[in-house]
Specification:
Elements (H helix, E strand, L loop, with lengths): L7 H15 L6 H8 L9 E6 L11 H19 L3 E3 L3 E2 L4 H10 L3 H18 L10 E2 L3 H16 L3 E11 L4 E3 L4 E2 L2 E2 L7 E10 L5 H7 L4 E2 L1 H11 L2 E8 L2 E5 L10 E5 L4 E8 L6 E7 L10 E4 L5 H9 L16 E5 L5 E2 L1 E2 L9 E4 L3 E4 L29 H4 E3 L6 E4 L3 E2 L1 H4 L3 H4 L12 H7 L4 E5 L6 H14 L11 E5 L3 E2 L2 E2 L10 H8 L1 H10 L8 E2 L1 H22 L28 H23 L3 H17 L6 H11 L4 H11 L23 E8 L2 E9 L6 H9 L2 H7 L6 E5 L3 E5 L1
Helix pairs in contact: 1-21, 2-13, 15-16, 16-17, 17-19, 18-19, 18-20, 20-21
């Protein structure tokens, strides 16, 4: 029997222990793999639900993480209640600069830092009530994991997709390491926003450009957020044109018909200056000047452009500034030059001059050249060193340790030196989703049968900010592994949903602004269910909701109202045995109840119940959790209006609708109020009856000073009763905050349509 007072801390700790003991979120991967091995089966029941794993920073999870991870968790819970065997793992992207910089700041071994931060993250995730399979955790800095990241590098090398060359690269002076093109935003480091320098260094690359066309074509066959697809297409930047020679300078252009209006050629340079050189325009046979220009990109096309100031704004600005001719000529078709396809995409730079990363499994032999480490010798362990601070010299800290880099060549036995750069952390995260189901299997990166059964990922929930970083890299690696016949699919994530970015007081959360929200404080004060419900109610999942303390207090009051509805029904109020919403929940203990005294009201409650089930079902499927919760709130208002008309079936359906959003509360009510023994999260999602969806009901819009602030549905006869509508409107959760402390000057009522409070 539930207690009268809602005590979230007691309830949540209780169910955490029960769920862990019973393992309700831990599917038997091997057993399920036997069942799901035939991916073509129309009765496939598996659902791989993945949230983009976090960097375990020293500060722990903030409310923005909780916003995103809860959105993912809700969908996984919903799919489990729809008969799917859900695999929902979690892990930590623990290698890389985030953890390393903090370790440097506090002068502590990064291994110890990560051990502490990942433990804290786990505690926070557990408290939030997420249904993760904790038996399948991945930590990228664990040798059991990065052994296989090194294996992946060797596979790239053997396929001819990994190479080392001297190249002009992006170098961040603050992070003291090179950056991939994708990690430079408007000339600055995407992590620390420092202006990036250019340096010529020997670096390791993966040939992602070999897969440019496949990466483009694959976007047509996956269900991803539109903005992410656009970002990837733009980054790959495929363009058709011609290579045209101006003397000894080759130029790529997509508009060869404007060559007759070319008045200069510009090559990439560190500053704007005339070279003193002239070339012949092949279309006009006229001599034109050659300039160096900052705006010409060295890595686009040939690093040179034909200046057409009559048709290009940047060319016109440059020509005007330096008094170069502008020819206003009509474009003219020609066949000058050679057809060429150009791409913006450049090969992926994967080496880093830092310490905290997976050692690159390559060594340089004086006689054999670059040689990969034998796979049986993996992992190449990252040694524990005290001088792990980056020096910014173009070499990583491991270059100061001969005991690490001086080795024998596995081919000839001669003297060799191990590579001292480490891998970019995006290599770690490019394949982690493949490892999750095979955690615990030591003889391979991923078991073929398990992988065939569980992959690709059904739903990937993550941030759009990684559109051309992690998401592009993961697609590339998957395609390579497919070509190596190690997996039988070439796209890793069937569906990707890009969640929005939660803000605080109108600004992005950051330590410098002092607006980072620690979810632990709110879980302690209000309970995880209140926080979850509020985070999902703040706004759409793909929007930028603004966290407000006053909002979470209102949500706590709503949960208390829910608690009272169930507990009051259990402890004295009348309940109907009428089946208001048929639910397939197995054997359920009946709560003692009485019949309704008002069949008209009963019919209205039934209809509202079915409408709500339909609405919540449809909104969850579209990730519109805020409107799903709003529908539940409307239903609860009806229950509050007709407390004696609530049936047992109504309460069952309401508990089931709440289960994905408030897992602890739903479990407590399911067991202690409704008398069930199995978990609410193992029940079947409620079904609605189409014949009961339509009814003689009216939606009343609630306005404050003429602006719509909420709405609710009532039975038609009620819709003309001003006193009753005014009472219901004032009890609406959204309206309470608008009226709190305000004086109502006037109430304008349009029967059956609107009630407007002038305050």
């Amino acid at each position: 029997m539930t207690k009268q007072k809602y005590n979230p801390n007691e309830i949540e700790k209780k169910w955490q222990k029960v769920w862990e003991k019973e393992g309700i979120y831990f599917p038997d991967i091997n057993k399920a793999s036997d069942k799901f091995y035939d991916r073509g089966s129309q009765t496939l029941k598996k659902f791989y639900n993945l949230w983009m794993f976090p960097y375990p920073s020293a500060e722990g999870l903030h409310a923005g993480h909780a916003f995103a991870s809860t959105g993912s968790d809700i969908y996984g819970r919903y799919m489990r209640m729809n008969g799917k065997t859900v695999f929902q793992p979690i892990g930590y992207d623990s290698f890389g600069i985030h953890s390393e910089n903090y370790a440097i700041k506090i002068n502590e071994d990064p291994y110890e830092v990560v051990k502490r931060t990942t433990k804290h993250y786990e505690e926070q995730m557990r408290s939030l009530g997420h249904g993760y399979d904790w038996t399948k955790t991945v930590t990228t800095s664990d040798p059991d994991y990065y052994k296989w990241t090194q294996w992946l590098f060797i596979k790239m090398w053997k396929k001819g997709l990994a190479y080392k060359k001297k190249a002009e690269v992006n170098f961040c002076p603050s992070c003291k390491t090179v950056l991939a093109d994708e990690q430079v935003i408007d000339g600055a480091c995407e992590r620390c926003q420092s202006v990036v320098d250019k340096k010529d260094l020997e670096q390791w690359f993966f040939k992602i450009t070999d897969y440019a066309d496949r990466l483009l074509a694959g976007l047509d066959n996956i269900d991803w957020s539109r903005k992410v697809k656009i970002a990837q297409r733009n980054w790959i930047g495929k363009s058709e044109g011609r290579i045209i020679k101006f003397g000894d300078i080759k130029v790529f252009t997509t508009l060869p018909d404007t060559i007759n209006a070319v008045t200069f050629v510009a090559i990439s340079g560190q500053k704007d200056q005339f070279t003193g050189k002239y070339v012949i325009n092949p279309a006009t046979n006229k001599k034109i000047p050659v300039w160096e220009a900052i705006y010409v990109l060295k890595d686009y096309g040939t690093g040179a452009i034909m200046g057409v100031p009559a048709y290009d704004d940047r060319d016109r600005e440059f020509a005007t500034k330096y008094h170069i001719d502008i020819l206003e000529l009509e474009p003219k078709e020609n066949d000058i030059g050679k057809k060429h396809t150009n791409y913006h995409l450049r090969d992926w730079l994967v080496s880093r001059q830092r310490y905290w990363g997976a050692p690159i499994p390559m060594l340089n032999c004086k006689d054999c050249g670059w040689v990969s480490v034998p796979e049986e010798d993996l992992p190449i362990l990252l040694p524990s060193i005290s001088d792990y601070k980056p020096e910014g010299t173009g070499k990583g800290p491991l270059a100061n340790h001969p005991d690490f880099f001086k080795v024998k060549c596995p081919n000839c036995g001669g003297e060799a030196e191990r590579e001292t750069d480490v891998m970019d952390t995006f290599v770690d995260s490019s394949w982690y989703f493949l490892r999750y189901p095979s955690v615990g299997i030591d003889n391979c990166a991923f078991d073929s049968k398990i992988t065939k059964a569980w992959l690709p990922v059904n739903l990937y929930f993550g941030g759009a900010e990684h559109s051309v970083l992690h998401l592009m890299y993961a697609r590339f690696v998957t395609m390579v592994l497919h070509d190596l016949k190690l997996i039988d699919f070439d796209e890793p994530f069937s569906k990707f949903f890009a969640h929005g970015l939660m803000i605080k007081d109108g600004a992005k959360m950051s330590k410098s602004r002092g607006n980072v929200i620690n979810p632990d404080e709110y879980v302690e004060k209000y309970g995880a269910d209140t926080l979850r419900l509020y985070l999902m109610f703040m706004g759409p999942m793909d929007g930028s909701p603004d966290f407000r303390d006053t909002g979470i207090e209102g949500m706590y009051r709503f949960i208390e109202k829910l608690w009272r509805i169930f507990t009051n029904s259990r402890h004295g109020s009348s309940l109907s045995t009428a089946d208001a919403a048929p639910v397939d929940t197995g054997a359920i203990t009946k709560v003692d109840s009485l019949m309704f005294s008002n069949s008209i009201d009963q019919n209205f409650v039934d209809i509202k119940m079915h409408q709500t089930i339909k609405k919540v079902t449809e909104e969850i499927q579209e990730f519109k959790y805020n409107t799903a919760i709003s529908a539940i709130m409307e239903l609860v208002n009806i229950f509050t209006k007709y407390p004696s008309q609530i049936s047992v079936s109504n309460l069952k359906s309401l508990a089931l609708l709440l289960a994905p959003f408030t897992p602890y509360l739903a479990e407590e009510l399911w067991h202690e109020t409704l008398g069930n023994t199995d978990s609410v999260h193992a029940q079947t999602w409620p079904k609605y009856d189409d014949s009961k969806i339509t009814s003689d009901t009216v939606t009343i819009v609630i306005q404050i000073n003429g602006k719509c602030r909420s709405q609710f549905t009532v039975h038609s006869p009620q819709s003309t009763n001003k006193e009753e509508i005014e009472k219901l409107a004032k009890e609406d959760e959204k309206i309470i905050k608008w009226l709190d402390g305000k004086k109502i000057k006037k109430v304008i009522f349009v029967p059956g349509k609107i009630i407007n409070f002038v305050i």
